[in-house]
Amino acid sequence: MRFVFVLPLLPLAGCIQPTISKIDYRTYRIESGGIPGGSDAPNRRLAEQVCPSGYRVVDETSHQNTPDRARDEIGDTFTTWTVRCL
After folding, report:
1. Alpha carbon separation from 38 to 10, 26, 62, 68 (Å, rounded)
2. Torsion angle, CA of 62/27/20/52, rounded to 10 degrees?
3. CB under 8 Å to 26, separation ≥6 — which residues?
4. How confident is the model at residue 73, as a pLDDT?
5. Which of 4, 18, 41, 73 has the most C-beta neighbours closer than 10 Å?
6. What is the pTM of this model?
7. pLDDT at position 71
């Protein structure tokens, strides 16, 4: 019976994972999903995976709306990092 209740929530679990896109040779953009409290730990973990020898945060933005800024999600903070590998 519990399986029936967990199944609809399964697609939502992937929405919180950060996404990464390559800008140039050593520069990446990391966009996190909505995280209550605005933690940047998912961005740090992904940056450490992409840049094992270290990274520098070039730009950081955070906002309270969804990525398309069409509606509010109360309590969730979305962050975007631009990192450069060392």
Report:
1. 22, 26, 8, 17
2. -110
3. 51, 84, 85
4. 61
5. 18
6. 0.69
7. 61
The first and second tokens of residue 71, run together, are: 């509606």
Decide: 55 and 30 in contact? Cβ < 8 Å.
no
Token pair, residue 56, equals 């520098």
The DSSP H or E segment spanning 61 is strand 55-63
Cβ atoms of 78 and 33 within 8 Å: the answer is yes
With helix as H, strand as E and coil as C, how does the chain read?
A: CHHHHHHHHHHHHCCCCCEEEECCCCEEEEECCCEECCCCHHHHHHHHHHCCCCEEEEEEEEECECCCCCCECCCEEEEEEEEEEC
Residue ranges covered by each domain of the chain: 15-85
Distance CA 41, CA 32 (A): 10
Tokens 């050593």 locate to 26
- Compute the distance between CA of residue 54 and CA of residue 73 in angstroms, rounded to an integer: 33
